[in-house]
Amino acid sequence: QVQLVESGGGLAQAGGSLRLSCTASGSRFSINAMGWYRQAPGKRREMVAVIMSGGSPNYADSVKGRFTISRDNAKNTVYLQMNSLKPEDTAVYYCNADFPGDYRPIRYWGQGTQVTVSS
What we know:
Elements: E1 3-7, E2 10-13, E3 18-25, E4 34-39, E5 46-51, E6 57-59, E7 67-72, E8 77-82, E9 91-99, E10 106-109, E11 113-118
Parallel strand pairs: 2-11
Antiparallel strand pairs: 1-3, 3-8, 4-5, 4-9, 5-6, 7-8, 9-10, 9-11
């Protein structure tokens, strides 16, 4: 059974930094894309950053230049370095990982980690 375990959330002041980590376990297959999404109260879940197995990242416009996604394929781990945090970054952050499926990738999600940025 595939599991994704996140860590690193918490409370930060505006302008501060946090680093999130997410490790996948339970599959012998290589992971395709890994990414981070977030959901603020009353809002829809939105993509924050995604990185392919070859290392190509994509970012939401709202975090470009402030957040950096990276991954360690040997550890099945994805990271999100968040700098210059803003109160509007406050949300529950979820990681995901896409594994190969018979017809399409199978996406798994972590349980979420709270990030709160105070002004």
